[in-house]
Amino acid sequence: GAGVSQTPSNKVTEKGKYVELRCDPISGHTALYWYRQSLGQGPEFLIYFQGTGAADDSGLPNDRFFAVRPEGSVSTLKIQRTERGDSAVYLCASSNTGPTYNEQFFGPGTRLTVL
Amino acid sequence: AQSVSQHNHHVILSEAASLELGCNYSYGGTVNLFWYVQYPGQHLQLLLKYFSGDPLVKGIKGFEAEFIKSKFSFNLRKPSVQWSDTAEYFCAVSGNKLVFGAGTILRVKS
Questions:
Q1: Do residues B41 and B109 lie in contact, with contact meaning Cβ atoms separated by under 8 Å?
Q2: How far apart are CA A81 and CA A68, in angstroms?
Q3: Contact check, Cβ <8 Å, B98/A45
Q4: Which of A23, A71, B6, B18 lies at a CB distance of 3.0 to 4.6 Å from B101, suitable for a disulfide?
Q5: Where in the sequence is the domain holding B78, given as residue range(s)?
Q6: Which residues of A touch B102 (CB under 8 A)?
Q7: Is B69 helix (H, G, I), strand (E, B) or coil?
Q8: Shortest CB distance from B43 goes to which of A56, A100, A107?
Q9: pLDDT (tens digit per residue) in B40-88
């Protein structure tokens, strides 16, 4: 079956622009997660959805970052007024239920470069 | 708050050498522990996990890890590495969210 997919695979934008990153989770997975991975670091938690609602958004760095999952499947991470420090690989993962006891399946990531 | 520390950022080994990658965590509650691996050009994938029971956990490709509660450690081991084990390895701890260490890049020389 299909795994987690993310589009685009690469995104180059200019400082101050708005970007949207998309994640298609594994069919039937109710939990969806976004992470950010900077060079030389492990993935850093951003937000976790259970169904349509954000169960934990404590990792979002500031109010320029926002994510939605309106129908409980596809999710979009939105970044407003991008800054050079937002450059990173943004990873999406999904799992059967919540994060505590379940393996998370990761997508290939979107590499965001802010010039 | 949860945190994970991986001791080595880069490790270089020859084929057939034994491997041990260190991982220490900090978390006040019941933890679930994971090792993920990222092979060159591939997604992060689960290598092994510990939730409860036998503290010696066996994963895929001959890897194992031992949970030592008194040391807050979950070290990854493999008795004899292969060239195909070249990858980046991440230790992670899950309380109410999954927190990753900075990763260890393993290069195995053939």
A1: no
A2: 18
A3: yes
A4: B6
A5: 3-109
A6: 40-42
A7: helix
A8: A107
A9: 999 999 999 999 899 999 999 999 999 999 999 999 999 999 999 999 9
Would an 8 Å CB–CB cutoff place B92 in contact with chain A?
yes
**Measured between alpha carbons, how far is A55 from A98 in angstroms, rounded to an integer?**
9
Q: A100 pLDDT exceeds 70?
A: no
CATH fold of A5-102 reads Immunoglobulin-like (2.60.40)
- Supply A82's token pair: 């991008």
Return mean pLDDT, chain B.
93
d(CA B93, CA B110): 32
CB B78 within 8 A of CB B92: no
Closest chain B residue to A36 measured between Cα atoms?
Answer: B100
Say if B60 is an interface residue toward chain A (CB within 8 Å).
no
- Asked whether the beta carbons of A92 and A9 are under 8 A apart, the reply is no
Domain ranges within chain A, ordered by starting residue: 5-102
CATH code at B98? 2.60.40.10
Give the total number of structural domains in chain B: 1
- State the pairing for strand pair B32-38/B10-14: unpaired
